[in-house]
Specification:
Elements: E1 7-10, E2 30-33, E3 44-49, E4 65-68, H1 74-77, E5 87-88, H2 93-111, H3 114-122, E6 139-143, H4 147-156, E7 162-167, E8 176-180, H5 185-189, E9 194-197, H6 211-215, E10 221-225, H7 234-242, E11 246-251, E12 271-273, H8 283-299
Parallel strand pairs: 1-2, 1-3, 3-4, 4-5, 6-7, 6-9, 7-8, 9-10, 10-11, 11-12
Helix pairs in contact: 2-4
The chain binds NADPH dihydro-nicotinamide-adenine-dinucleotide phosphate and oxalic acid.
Length: about 325
Amino acid sequence: RTLAKPKVLFMLPPGWDALGKDSFASDEFEAVLDGREDYKPEEITYFSGFRPPPGFLKTLPNLKAMFSLGAGVDGFLRDPELPRLPLTRFVDPTLMHEMAQYVVMHVLIAHRGQRFFDAAQKESAWRQRMLARPSRDTRIGILGLGDIGGTIATSLLPFDFQLTGWSRSRKNIPGVKSFAGESELPQFLARCDYLVCVLPLTDETRGIIDAKLLAQLPQGAWVINVARGAHLIEEDLIAALDSGHLAGAVLDVFQAEPLPDESPIWRHPKITATPHIAGITDAQAAFAYVADCVIRCESGQPLENVVDLTKGY
Ligand code: NDP
Ligand code: OXD
């Protein structure tokens, strides 16, 4: 190539610190690592990151497009001064499968009562017991039946659970009953022994899992939130667990991240908490995606997975 390569500014998410500059070598673009090297804002043509600070992107005057390193783009859309430029989200099979593994694992741990056997082993106790309920009588509902929710549903299919999903538009996934729109939310909730949230965070979905919603779940239900902390009113969840209405919760995302030391979630006996690791963006896949986006932009082809700013995802 004789022409200068376009510069992509990367703002790396936590956990990517170990990646050296050589990991970003590309025929398609020159990577500039924010916080590690100096650059002139006007040199930057593209941006890639996860949660750029509000107000930052408007300081890049020659920006042409933004590529989210996450499937969720709430970290961009929270910026009231976000440039009106194409924004793509990361849609990647590895990420979808990791999310599905996390949910399948936690559903099975709860369904099989594995914590009971872990506790028995600590006491060297041979305690046998039956499953509380066979999988054919156990109902799992997925809030958000998109790329990740759909993969979670199909990954759960072989276990013979009753599967449902809720989304804005009706879906046709064999073996998964589809509920759509607000009017069908109560019917959906009434049949969730496990409620899995994998919605995008938008004005419509913020705080959706509150006391009113939790009260519509069957007695003894579980809540698994792998979407965003702001979907869930944590105080309402704790009240529903403490009252005995809910049996347990698995949370990967929180209102405040990192989860503050003083949060009761850390020590709650009915909550399993993990540090936003249900799906971790694979760096190699992410670079291939950024390269593809740059090629498309530079050659005038349409970008894939462009966020609809009116819908917010
Ligand atoms: P998609 O955009 O593919 O799917 C979103 C789904 O939510 C769609 O089915 C959509 O309905 C539905 N939805 C959106 N708004 C509403 C609404 N108001 N009412 C009903 N349904 C609604 O997103 P992904 O599956 O790729 O990702 C989902 C989220 O998962 C991300 O936004 C991110 O927050 C989270 N995530 C978390 C990770 C982690 O490590 N914890 C990792 C990766 C993602 P429709 O199809 O009809 O439009
Ligand atoms: C994502 C995430 O949105 O990791 O991809 O949370």
